[in-house]
Design a protein that fits this description.
The protein has 3 helices and 14 strands. It has helices at about 10-30, 65-70, 205-215, and strands at about 30-35, 45-50, 50, 55-65, 80, 90-95, 100-105, 110, 120, 140, 145-150, 175, 180-190, 195. The chain is globular, with a radius of gyration of 20 Å.
């Protein structure tokens, strides 16, 4: 069905190998589509019909090419990854990058590194319900080389680095290695009325929707 009558078999097989290789490259290294489950990133994600959707929610486009070939994850970006233990994929926001020290005190997040010392982390993406209410099983995260600290935007209902993605029982670690990060979440593709780019300023000026979360 695919081979031209005047095409040789070696040429046909070479063409198939090239096509399959391109498809596999795109599938594993360029982009992927994921469906977001749960409320851990609400209201940034899965805030549908004026409420946080628990269960299956929005579909997102994930850029896998960026971290494989261009640069490392940056603070504030939303990423899809596997936790240090387990195969299930999570979606959270990068809070600490290699070399950072993240402190969680009095419900707030502070950043220290070569540039900052105990700088209050600006988090405009948090809803009113979550601002100043970040609690953690551990207070200090000294991020090692090649690893990251990841929190959900819905701080009161997110299983993330603060709890070692399950429980910090002495064996689990809060730090996610770069090799476990699949890619950066770029935009929401479904539902159509929520089609948008994902940026850390998404809810900075949308106090009306944040207030809706407060009352939910």
């Amino acid at each position: 069905m695919f081979k031209e009558k005047d095409q040789s078999w070696p040429s046909f097989f070479l063409e198939m190998v090239i096509i399959i290789s391109v498809v596999l490259f795109i599938r594993f290294y360029v982009f992927q589509f994921f469906r977001v489950h749960g409320v851990s990133m609400c209201p940034t994600l899965n805030f549908v019909e004026d409420k946080c959707r628990d269960g299956k929610g929005e579909f997102i486009f994930v850029n896998e090419f960026l971290y494989h070939f261009r640069r490392d994850p940056q603070r504030g970006e939303i990423v899809v990854f596997r936790p240090p233990i387990g195969e299930k994929h999570y979606i959270k926001r990068v809070i600490g990058v290699p070399g950072d020290t993240i402190d969680v005190r009095h419900g707030k997040v502070f950043l220290s590194n070569d540039e900052y010392h105990q700088q209050l982390l600006d988090e405009p993406y948090l809803s009113l319900k979550n601002r100043g209410r970040t609690l953690s099983q551990r207070e200090t995260f000294e991020v090692p080389e090649g690893h990251y600290v990841l929190f959900g935007d819905n701080r009161q209902k997110s299983l993330d680095s603060r709890y070692c993605f399950s429980a910090c029982d002495g064996r689990a670690t809060p730090f996610v290695p770069k090799k476990n990060i699949r890619g950066r979440s770029e935009f929401v593709i479904w539902p159509l009325d929520r089609l948008r780019w994902l940026t850390e300023e998404l809810f900075e000026e949308n106090e009306e929707e944040s207030s809706a979360i407060e009352g939910s």
